[in-house]
# Entry
Amino acid sequence: MKSILSIFALLLSLQAFCQGQFQKEASGTLGFVSGQVMQLAQAIPAEKYSWAPQAGVRSVAEVCAHIVSANYFFASKLGAKIPESVKMETLEKDLKTKEAIAGELKRSYELIIDAVKNTKDSALPAKLSFLFRVTIQACPPS
# Structure
């Protein structure tokens, strides 16, 4: 009986230890990545933000705006409210200057990190299930 109680106590303590683990790891990773992206955005000269490797490929500004857009999208899926001044439909075209992009990058990373930190463990399966819905189709025989 003592061994069963000991095992139960161990399992219960492991369960308590794991609470919020996803939030801690994900927000830590996002914090690190945001620092790297912000440093890169600051290091690129303002006159290079319109540069694109070729026609039909996103410019530096559009890539940064795409990151902002993704941050807002995933934050909204976790229940965060996107700032009213942000127009998701035109975001990549609206952000053109280095200053505007840097400000919006910072704001979007703050929102996604805050959304991750404030998501309760019990809500994670419902809020994250859209990420893992994959339809697998068999390849036709060749």
Observations:
- The mean pLDDT is 82.
- The helical segments are 2-18, 21-43, 60-77, 91-94, 98-117, 124-128.
